Amino acid sequence: MGIIDWICVVGYFALLGLIGYQTSKGVKSVEDYNVAGEKVTWPILFASLAASVLGGGASTGMAGNVFKDGYVFMFAFCAYGVASVLIGYFIAPRLKAYKGAQTVGDIMEKHYGKMAKLLTGILSVGLCTGILGGQALALGTIFNVILDIPPIVGILIGMGVVILYTSFGGVWAVIQTDVVQFVLLGVILPVTLIIGLFAAGGTDTLIEKVPSAHLTFLGSWELVSFIGLFVTFLLGEALIPPYTQRVFSSKDPEHSRKGYMISGFFSFGFFFITGSLGLVAYVLFPDIQTDQALPTIVKNLLPVGVTGLAVSALLAVIMSTASSFLNATTVSFMQDIYFPFLSRKKHSEKHYLFMEKALTLIVGIGSVIFALSVPSIIAALEYSYYLWAPTIVFPLVMAIMWKIYNVTAGLCSIIVGAAVTLIWTFVLHDPFSLSGVVPGVIANMIAFFIAYSLNKNSSVECQPSTAGKEMVENDAL
């Protein structure tokens, strides 16, 4: 890269640090740190959600897997967008009815009891740390391929900056940096695709040089494999802590609906752009490794100046997701595990803020260790989804949409779903090439209905017992 490119990259990092520092001055309470004072309007919510959802998996991971398998992977990945649109329309507005809620565990406790809150907190921390590790791995790949920096050094630099502004400014710093990052990725990546298509000889030439299977709906995949991965992506990030935290931070139900739905529609176009860049890499650089497709295009095709902006955009799309999951991991641990189960006495607001910032550093280090132990970005995401889709999603939706209160049903569904997923994946080794998420979700649903039907008399609202604020449901929605 030229001097102009380096100026762009260094300037981008400096801007993120400045935002974190400025935001930290306005963080006076745990509520400010966790849900930004519930003042986020729908345009900001849309930009923040879009930047958070479209992370390393949707950019570097998407390009790499389309490079390997074709558009079939993009079609499976579109399940994210489908989930966002459905959640935005039906569920996001209802989340705002839980006054004072800051985590998914707050909702689960209200409907299924204190133990459900603990299990949700543990699963939330595991899920977010795993996905955070995937983003760290993507950062290392970009630094290595484009800047010739060893992956571990790149991970430490990228995650160091993320930890800096996230720990100082909390969710409001994350949201503000998301908006900056959204603007970068929304402009630079489409420009990168146009340049890439020109270098490949145009769209017609690209189509001629790409295997025909790469352009079909299923490619070389079996239908059952596609369905398994689609369901995994559909439910794997449904209502996960960072996204529900964004809804809790929104101004009102209508703002949460608009922001969530528009981010879902936007994702379809983004997936097509990054997926198509994978095909460009297949034609121009057929011998590279899968996860190197997108950074290789940026390094070799873009002119001076644009390269620096594109590197910043790639870092932006990954760092925005990383910061969201880093903050959500800290909030979930403190609100769902520490306050209700580990804290023995009350401390000052300043003490709790210090603890959250210190925990942010610890989680960041844990994600780096995880990143070094997984084979690819998408593998990191899939492993993480096993913790969420077959355990929390269905009972959470039943609680929000149909106001079900039943401790037995909630706990049984979580435990059975987790057990079936683990057995299917690690004992039976995915029979029929079907992801363990699918049988896990089915078992989760069956266990919920059986337990609910046998224990209807226990369907009473649970009283929150955490250190958090009381939640009062608004039946006017």
From TrEMBL:
UniProt keywords (A-Z) are: Membrane, Plasmid, Transmembrane, Transmembrane helix, Transport
Is the Membrane keyword given for this protein?
A: yes
**Family statement:** Belongs to the sodium:solute symporter (SSF) (TC 2.A.21) family.
Family annotation (InterPro entries):
Na/Glc_symporter_sf (IPR038377), Na/solute_symporter (IPR001734), Sodium:Solute_Symporter (IPR050277)
Residues passing through the membrane, by range: 6-23, 44-64, 70-92, 118-146, 152-175, 182-201, 221-240, 260-285, 305-338, 358-379, 385-402, 409-427, 433-454
The answer to whether keyword Transport applies is: yes
How is this protein named in the record? Sodium:solute symporter family protein
Any one cellular-component term (Gene Ontology) = plasma membrane
> What organism, scientifically named, is this protein from?
Cytobacillus firmus
Output one GO MF annotation.
transmembrane transporter activity
What is the membrane topology noted in the UniProt record heading this document?
Multi-pass membrane protein
Matching entries from Pfam families are given as: SSF
Q: What subcellular compartments does it reside in?
A: Membrane
